[in-house]
Design a protein that fits this description.
five-stranded mixed beta sheet; Ubiquitin-like (UB roll); 1 helix; 5 strands; mainly beta
Length: about 60
Amino acid sequence: MITVNGEPLDWKPGMTVQDVLDAKRYTFRMIGVWINDRPVPKNEFTTTEVPDGAVVQAVHMVSGG
């Protein structure tokens, strides 16, 4: 089990950041992700595995003027 933005999510071996975003249906173009308070570069979302028990924060970045 992992926690995503304060909510539990079933964990699977090999689960990547992109898998988590897909499971939560987060489709924002500009999103920041942290695993256990460590930032994950966007270009590593498909290769960075999320460990069991992790705390994941996903924040939608808003731009404008």
